[in-house]
Amino acid sequence: MDKEDIKLTSSEIGTLWGQYINGTAVDTVNKYMVSIIEDEKIKALFEEAISIFDKQKQQIVSFLEKDGFPIPIGFTDYDLNKGTKRLFSDIFCVHYLHIMTLHGLLGHTTSLSSSVRKDLRYFYDSCDTDGKKMYHQTTDLLLEKGHLQRDPYFFPEANPEFVQGQKFTDGFFGEKRPLAATEIVALSLNMKKKILGKALSIGFSQVTQSKEIREFLKSAQKTSDEQIQSLGKILHEDNLPIPISWETEVNTSQEAPFSDKLMLYHIGFLLQAAQSYHGAGLASAMRADLVIAYEKIILKNITVTKDWFNLMTKNKWLEQPPLAPNRKDIAKDK
């Protein structure tokens, strides 16, 4: 059967829909950032990112239209207030692009693994290639600017070691063993993403026009800070460096560069995406205090995400993804 005659599966439709919604949100932020960035090298990266997504967006639209599915509204220039004052520094902007590229890489890989149709697999493979290139570019630029903090260094052991008894998992009673390298991977990633979420919450809370949304953003900021402190304490107790914060890279502007819809959605996206990293951290944790820390974070984020969902639906801002046919309702209507 020709690939043009093979319909998209529900999973393939879901990945395309998600890529469009999340992609247009980040693209709108990128368009604002490229308008305020002064550093030519950073600006060039954002121009490239915008150009890449424009091509990806056209392809997503083509896939959906050919199967008769409506194109999501997502986010557009209506969610961008041009000509507003600078809210973020150039360095914050490149950190933002770096972290969102990491999210994009995970999204492309998940979408690829959920796709069967050949043209769709090749599309996500090209998206992954573009994402990896952007990751290298943002990493190199942050290193060049002296703004990329490396994770802790370890000293090599003389020989491989094996776990000796239950003491390896103890994190409450007696002397704790040092953190494992496999545990630090998750701690580092989770903290860096929470640092971004906190900084965005601070900036968005300064400029939102809604008191209700401002209170939610302040709450999200407080939650991020508490979780950064919780994970940072674990690193600190092992005399390991804690990732630096980016609050000072947020300016004092009170002019909103984005719609309240986009700002609220963006924080919700980060909350939801974080849960997969929390799960990975929980799965890699072999010390009891780490397990408890991740469980508390996951449960707290569920509560915060529920508040976010209620605000989004109250304002009629949350687009509904394609649903499976409701056979009971179809039968009733006959």
Automatic annotation (TrEMBL):
Protein name per its UniProtKB record: DUF3231 family protein
Organism: Paraliobacillus quinghaiensis
InterPro entries: DUF3231, Ferritin-like
Pfam families linked to this entry: DUF3231
